[in-house]
Amino acid sequence: MGIIKPLPELLISQIAAGEVVERPAAVLKELLENSLDAGATRIDVQLEEGGVRLIRVTDDGNGIAPEDLPLALARHATSKIASLDDLERVGSYGFRGEALASIASVARVSITSRHASQSRAFRLRSESDPVEPAALAGGTVVEVADLYFNTPARRKFLKTEATEFAHCDEVVRRMALARPDVAFTLTHNGSAKRRLAGADFPRRAREIIGEEFFPHARPLDAVAGPLRLSGLAALPAYSRSGRDEQYFFVNGRFVRDKLLTHAARQAWADILHGQRHPAYVLFLELDPAGVDVNVHPAKTEVRFRDARGIHQFVFHALQRALAAPLSSAASPPEASPAFVPSAFSYARQSGFAVGEPAARSYLEFARAAFDAAETAVSPAPTVAYPEDGSAPLLGYAIAQLHGVFILAQNANGLVLVDMHAAHERILYEKLKYSLDAGPPATQSLLVPLLLSASEAEMATASEQSEVLAELGFAIAAAGPRELAVRSLPALLAGGNAVDLVRSLLRDLAEHPASRVIETRRNELLATMACHGAVRAHRLLSPPEMNALLRQMEETERADQCNHGRPTWVQLSMAELDRLFMRGR
Ligand SMILES: Nc1ncnc2c1ncn2[C@@H]1O[C@H](COP(=O)(O)OP(=O)(O)O)[C@@H](O)[C@H]1O
Ligand SMILES: [Mg+2]
To answer: Which of 3, 298, 487, 542 has its CA 20 to 30 A from that of 276?
Structure first.
């Protein structure tokens, strides 16, 4: 006798349910997607006991006709696609026609709905029961009660009520970000948890991600052929210890995708400390035919036809948005006030009539910085502040504080600049730029700089002389334990060359790979920038401080140092007033 038997229909559904209905949040996601597919503009979610006891989703969508009600609960029955062609360019959230059937196999499901064409509502309590008349003004109510009542083994895998609720809440957050135009409410055990009115994206993002994210978020909107990437990306000054604020949507669908996460990770790699995670809400839009959403029943994974192209596009669009100089960040594409961090808000008004010529070359600036004497505070004469909005973004220097910070006055109030960090960032970007443009400009030293060196340093200097030359250094042995530096990059000519060369040799010794210049170039440049940058406790004159501010405004990524720390902060007049409890 044969031992292979067809599985009963219920068991098939229960097996399938394992993939779609792993926890209450997964059920909620399916129900919300159905409501959105039905064109809902407001959706109310009621949960009991983390969604295990009850999930009720009420929407104002198109509704379901009575003759369709039993089919809604049947496996592989859907109103959303009819052919393979439809599947390949699916624009709805659902299309597999199995969510409700799977859910109904492991919970008690009832659907009440009034189709737009009907004068009354109908209810279905289970697939085998008859459809009965019911009371409902419009839309659909789906109730899922007693999840896993018939599969106790699964029920054991559920976490605490609080945890299950937190997962449900996260599902609502994602949907709410994807569809700011739709109003949502969320209630748990009778108490209201979220109440979101239909809004525009900036406002919704503010409600969902919170106030702290906002001042650091840069808007982006990049288009390349059929691809578009838009949303908000946080500068490194706002980073997270986990990935909890990373929202990526592909054609409106929240996804976890390795390719996209990787592209984002790379865009931040150069500016974010390795242990920190970026925060973003990003929407990738493309032709539905270019992406396969039918990879997994839960549909949070996707497969791109042109994976490489997508990766490149996302990486570059993000990198550009994050690197844009401060002055260009001042005019975000969406001219919504919510998008404009306070520090940037006034620079849009106009260009500036410079009160302090920023004409000094960088080199002059660096030299002056290093030649200057040591002192703690250097007051600068108060600058008559142009009231007509013609001042530069970071304003004018008014003092140097303990040789560490520059204080400047701009239209918003007080700007505090970490002198060393800011200078380091400027140098780093300049070094990268100059190396990209060809061999760097070097400065030959009339009298070679001699430094005593260990045997290891001597060896590194000779083994890596080509790499050193590419970076702009000419270093040769001058004796058995002595090196002579004959030239160095012009950009670094003002710094402490001995420390610089020692650190560089140490870096090179650690990574004796032959192609070190390609693989570790930016790390080497960071070392160089760090040693070339103005040290704390150097007195800067007002023109030097102002020159630094102007350089910052022009430099890409100037608002964070190479280690992802901010290089400047704004204290607005309002914030200062608050410090002094001054009513305005
Ligand atoms: N809230 C709702 N409003 C209107 N129709 C719905 C709703 N929920 C489910 N349906 C109908 O039930 C069908 C089956 O739903 P589901 O099992 O989730 O499969 P899918 O969404 O993949 O089509 C849908 O195709 C749709 O026609
Ligand atoms: Mg569905």
So the answer is: 298
